[in-house]
Amino acid sequence: IPQAAVLTRVTRAAVIEVTNEDFVRTARAKGLSRRRALWRHTVPNALLPVVTMLGLQIPFLISGAVLVENVFSLPGIGTLAYQALSQRDLVVVQNVVLLFVAIVLLVNAGTDALYARLDPRLRGRT
């Protein structure tokens, strides 16, 4: 829930910031309705900070699974990691950590790919 609040706050701030930009004001002055200007110009340009925050929050939420699964006695990768750690099963701990690292790398790669899709200025860069 706290992560959702942070994401909502960033989204709101980004939309307000982009709404005050000149190109949105120009679109409104040319006769575009408020709703159409919002979805056509504001939202696509406000998505970059939202994607950034989401990319940072997903690994945090995945690592929080260890705590949530143990508090509520749920079976899962978090419980496996905790049990392996408490039993000093090094091989399982290494594999779970490797899995978490792979997930974080995939999320970062997905965030970068989404950035390139949302911002045409980044499409030519590698």
Walkthrough of the structure:
The chain is mostly helical. The protein has two domains: 1-49, no CATH class; 64-126, no CATH class. 81% of the residues lie in helices and 0% in strands. The protein is built from six helices and no strands. Helix 2 (22-29) runs antiparallel to helix 3 (34-63).
The amount of beta strand, in percent, is under 5%
Biggest β-sheet strands, sense, barrel:
none
What's the N-to-C terminus distance?
35 Å
Note poorly predicted spans: none
- Provide the structure class: mainly alpha
Number of strands: 0
Radius of gyration over C-alpha positions, nearest whole angstrom = 20 Å
Tell me, what's the shape?
Answer: elongated
Tally of structural domains: 2
Arithmetic mean of pLDDT: 90
Indicate the percent of residues in helices: over 70%
Number of helices: 6
Order of helices and strands: HHHHHH
